[in-house]
Specification:
The chain is mainly α. It has three helices and no strands. Helix 1 packs antiparallel against helix 3.
């Protein structure tokens, strides 16, 4: 699978989570099926998803606060 949005701000944190929790060093395909397929423990996948969810909440909160600070007071 080829990912085209590597310049998105969220890309590096998600790769960091994948690296830390799942041992995945890159999202790029090597072209070798045996190298691109990985077994992961369910608890590791759960932990990675939880971290990604928490990251999304943090970013959403930060963006909301930044937008609120821009609004003029009534």
């Amino acid at each position: 699978m080829i990912y085209r949005n590597k310049t998105e701000a969220y890309w590096e944190p998600l790769l960091t989570i994948a690296r830390d929790e799942l041992g995945i060093e890159t999202f790029d395909s090597t072209g070798k099926p045996s190298a691109d397929i990985r077994l992961c423990r369910v608890e590791d996948i759960g932990r990675a998803l939880e971290r990604a969810y928490d990251f999304g909440l943090l970013v959403g909160h930060t963006v909301t606060r930044a937008e609120s600070a821009k609004e003029p007071c009534a």
